[in-house]
Design a protein that fits this description.
The protein is of the alpha/beta class and 437 residues long. It folds into two domains: 215 residues, Enolpyruvate transferase domain (UDP-n-acetylglucosamine1-carboxyvinyl-transferase, Chain), CATH 3.65.10; 200 residues, Alpha-beta prism (UDP-n-acetylglucosamine1-carboxyvinyl-transferase, Chain), CATH 3.65.10.10. 30% of the residues lie in helices and 27% in strands. It contains 13 helices and 23 strands. The strands form six sheets. Strands 2-15-17-16 form a four-stranded mixed β-sheet. It has a four-stranded mixed β-sheet with strand order 4-5-3-14, covered by helices on one side. A four-stranded mixed β-sheet has the order 6-7-9-8. Helix 12 links the parallel strand 22 and strand 23. The structure holds shikimate-3-phosphate. Shikimate-3-phosphate (S3P) binds next to helix 3 and helix 6.
Length: 437
């Protein structure tokens, strides 16, 4: 599907972004193995999270959608402990969702049955060896394509050994999978990361009574010797979805947007730090803690930016937002360099290559680095036809670029937004009065 976007005269208003994707996946999976009923409100109705629900149902979990509301799904999950899951009678299709596939693989490595996991063409290209290797070492039998590096793969779960894992790349998906496996092991498991990836798994599981503790870049997991307590939850807004609007507002010459009830966990908000270092006017209001996670309203206003160098520990804290940072850098004074971000090439598309190719069609001057992007500022972008490469975040990035470009931008593959933000085009129409989107 094509969508056409024009630059509006101004960007004003308030957006309540959809529920956080990472928390939605975790709330469903962890409650499915808890003991008792949990109610989850504002569950993200995106394709990725619906895929997690489908897979959990395939594993025999009892869950019901009580209500489909405009602000998300209300779910009831009735967990019957780890042993409440049973061998699926069919392949588990994780669609486009790396989080579904990796978290479930870690969980299923300790379950005494066979599961086969697959996904769409994009997910079947993404690296799974980094996960299946450690799970095999811990004692699970894994058989997959290309020497156990690609999906589809099969797991025969069973008794796992406690292990010390040292991850080569900071990855919350891999860390979370190894934590779920560690809960089912016969001794302590530790997971060391080279950088700070999002810590929602540690927070939510320990709130549910799991013996999981974090010390700096190391997570320690002891075998679960009691059932997890269910956890009622109202999911706050997704920072990654809010980020599109924050960057649009900062870059548009006449803009002020309020993004309400956003999850601002510091392992997620590296983009805010980078934007502020560039001189952007982005602030947090109404800061509070909701179910153990920091939540706030994000205010973003038109700003003048200067280029920066980004790398190191900021990268995992902004991994999904780095393409947006590259867009922001097009409008800054001076060059910007993003490094240490080779992981971007292993996302729903190769986001280094796809971001560079598509933003350059709009007149940007980006060049690829092996581990990132170099951005030369330009006087402005001009509308053109661009392609979302089947990647939800790329399609939304290009829509935001269209809000800033002169003339009309056509975003091909616009339907991909449904993966994480089904209401994206409606929200764009609301804030961008006068846009053709
Ligand atoms: C996610 C972790 C990140 C992120 C993805 C969601 C999660 O992936 O890119 O959108 O929910 O754990 P990695 O952990 O592989 O970097």
């Amino acid at each position: 599907m094509d969508r056409h976007v024009r630059r509006p005269h101004r960007l004003r208003g308030e957006i309540v972004p959809p529920g956080d994707k990472s928390l939605s996946h975790r709330a469903a999976i962890f409650n499915a193995i808890a003991d008792g009923a949990a109610r989850i409100e504002r569950f993200l109705p995106g394709d990725d999270c619906r895929g997690t629900l489908r897979c959990l149902q395939g594993l025999g979990a009892e869950l019901r959608v009580l209500e489909e509301r405009p602000d998300g799904l209300t779910l009831e999950v009735h967990g019957r402990g780890l042993d409440g899951l049973s061998e699926p009678s069919d392949v588990l299709d994780c669609g486009n969702s790396g989080t579904t596939m990796r978290l479930l693989a870690g969980l299923l490595a300790g379950r005494p049955f066979v599961s086969i996991l697959t996904g769409d063409a994009s997910l079947r290209r993404r690296p799974m060896g980094r996960l299946l290797g450690p799970l095999r070492e811990a004692g699970a039998v894994c058989v997959g394509r290309a020497g156990e590096t690609l999906a589809p793969f099969a797991i025969q779960g069973g008794t796992l050994r406690g292990m010390h894992h040292r991850l080569a790349v900071a990855s919350a998906q891999v860390k979370s999978a190894l934590v779920l496996a560690g809960l089912q092991a016969d001794a302590e498991t530790t997971v060391h990361e080279p950088g700070p990836s999002r810590d929602h798994t540690e927070r939510m599981l320990s709130a549910m009574g799991a013996p999981v503790t974090a010390e700096g870049l190391c997570v320690r997991v002891r075998p679960l010797d009691h059932e997890l307590s269910p956890c009622n939850l109202r999911i706050p807004g997704d920072f990654s979805s809010s980020a599109f609007w924050a960057v649009a507002a900062v870059l548009h010459p006449d803009a002020e947007l309020r993004l309400r009830d956003v999850l601002v966990n510091p392992t997620r908000t590296g983009l805010l730090d980078a934007l502020r270092a560039m001189g952007a006017d982005v602030t947090l209001e109404n800061e509070r803690v909701q179910h153990g996670e920091p939540v706030a309203d994000v205010m973003a206003r038109s700003s003048r930016l200067r280029g920066i160098e980004v790398g190191g520990a900021l990268v995992p804290r902004a991994i999904d937002e780095l393409p947006l940072l590259a867009l922001a850098a097009c409008f800054a004074e001076g060059e910007t360099v993003i490094r240490d971000a080779a992981e971007l090439r292993a996302k729903e598309s190769d986001r280094v290559a796809s971001t560079v190719a598509e933003l350059n069609r709009l007149g940007a001057r980006l060049s690829e680095l092996p581990d990132g992007v170099r951005v030369h500022p330009v006087a402005g972008l001009r509308g053109a036809a661009v392609d979302g490469h089947g990647d939800h975040r790329l399609a939304m990035l290009l829509a935001v670029a269209g809000l800033l470009a002169e003339g009309e931008t056509t975003v091909r593959g616009a339907e991909a937004v449904a993966v994480s933000y089904p209401g994206f085009w409606d929200d764009l129409g609301r804030v961008a009065l006068g846009s053709g989107g």
